[in-house]
Amino acid sequence: MKRCLVLIAVLVSSAVFAAEQPPRQVAPATVTMQFPEAFGEMQRPAVEFDHKAHTEALEAEGCEACHRIDDKGVLIPLLKSGLEIDNRDDLIDAFHDSCMGCHRERLEETLPAGPMTCGECHVRRQPGVSVRAEMAFDYSLHARHAKAFEDKCENCHHVYDEGTEELKYEKGKEEGCRSCHGAVDEERKLSLANASHRACISCHLRRIRSELESGPMLCAGCHDLKQRNAIERLEDVPRLVRGQADTIWIHGIDAKTATVAFNHLAHEPVTGSCSTCHHQTLKPCDECHTFAGSPEGAGVTMAQAYHRSSSEHSCVGCHAMETARQQCAGCHQVTSQSPADRTCVLCHNGPPPGSSALETAPTAVDPRLDPLPIPSDDYPETAVIEALVDTYEASKLPHAKIVGKLDEMVRESRLAGRFHVDTETLCRGCHHHSPIGTRPPPCRACHSEEADSTRDFPALKVAYHRQCIGCHIVMNIEKQGCTDCHAERSGAEEVQP
């Protein structure tokens, strides 16, 4: 019985210890070698292949040591000994003959070599989490490639001609690679990994051999964020033109609200790439997202595509991510995450659907924020907060200074300036349930001295501290202690907040 209890204790302790361990990280250059899905499951654990170590060991031989390069200089990413093999057993033999054969040859030549037994490659270990980052182009990286190719887009972009069953280039139909290439090969359509490695690595290799400036040849050069971010950025990135207008009207055929004047030119510099909004197809939104939803748009309607707050591709979702920034979070942490009714007209302020005005492009106009009012009874310079006066002196809130700082940050942001069109919008960050356009009542009008279980309002002291200190925390303002706002009363007993 004791042995059973000890065994159970050991197993439980081991399980708890394993659960507390952080997940094992797998380097960007580590390639997990799995069977093709059609061949079924492997009998042994998948091999975690260290591509970086092999590249360094086989530097003299180059890529051809493992991969085939055709007569056009295209590198085939798959192991050359496994090409054109369509059954499980032959593929196993091809990999073993290639890898272990190379190791054996190196041992005979007294060179550093790899494993020779099954368990050294097929290691049983806890599943790891790859830190490999997906490769993605931004405007600067795209411009560097366009410059290297002298703006010949056909070097990378193509469409499939079903009539001739060939790839060809069509100007104005350029799309992101992921628009066609998925996770796995589908007949003649290569997976994204195979297509991009064939195109990119082959091009880099040809340029290196021609002694031209080239991109990375190692995995980490593209898939390690630190190394990828170290790629020199162009100071002056030319506009990526694909027939887009500077300003457009956004409207739906069956829409009832006024149209939206969208400044496309102003949004381009604040996005990483066209796919930030247009996914990978780069098509106008309404081609996939219809009024009722369509299979092409995954059932997402036009209204949802623009207004869904949880999507980083939608207008409202993108704006919501901006409001989470440090300088905005102080107010937006307590305000509604969805747009209030009054904000609709800030965007939907164009002509009604079907209007003749839609035949001309809208004029891009930046909002003009009025200056802050002069301090008065309705807009005090200082507000005195008398909560906690039994322990501390009343807190003197520099009301005008706080509003002035918020106003300054709003004017530095084009997005904030577009939506904070009046001072009352700033006021709502603190006076969150007050009607905009009216003088807000004092906080105690809603928050009583003690919590009331029948009302959904925190007590007054809790409300003040949650509002003020909560704002200071998310905006990283140092004043977060009691005596930063309250002077201590002499002889008062110290009270923990």
CATH superfamily of the largest domain: Cytochrome C3
Mean pLDDT, nearest integer?
87
Q: Span from first to last CA?
A: 53 Å
At CATH level 3, the topology of the largest domain is Cytochrome C3
What's the CATH class of the largest domain, please?
A: Alpha Beta
Q: What is the number of helices?
A: 20
Residue windows where pLDDT falls under 50 for at least 5 positions: none
What is the strand content?
Answer: 5-15%
Q: Rg, please?
A: 31 Å
Give the strand line-up of the largest sheet.
1-6
> Helical proportion?
25-40%
Structure summary, number of beta strands: 12
Which CATH architecture of the largest domain is right? Alpha-Beta Complex
Largest sheet: 2 strands, parallel
The coarse overall form would be globular
